[in-house]
Amino acid sequence: MAERPEDLNLPNAVITRIIKEALPEGVNISKEARSAISRAASVFVLYATSCANNSAMKGKRKTLNSGDVLAAMEEMEFQRFLTPLKESLEAYRREQRGKKEATEQKRKDKDKKTDSDQEKSREEENVEDDRSEENPNDENEMEN
Q: What is the CA 112 to chain-centroid distance, rounded?
């Protein structure tokens, strides 16, 4: 657990980037306002985590999952955020599936290439063996 209350705050760089993305071009925000938003965001995250943890405990689990977070949003009366949150979650899952499939495809391609290279090496060895069997004297002549 955090030793000081400041340890629970979200990183200022992250908060500043989110604020800049949310505000129109040319709008500035004071340092004090940025600090207040940062603290409010931290409180929100802690409260949402606590509610999600309650949901997990009701299910006799120690691991929070996305369903717990969605239930927490509903418990906190943030129903209007459920649809966008579910859409973001589904987009994240699709992205992860795509990454997993790409990784598996790369592995399969690598395995095919390795198998192909090994087959070529075997064929080359067989050709060399066949040549040396056909002309066993050629090696002796080369040595002389």
A: 26
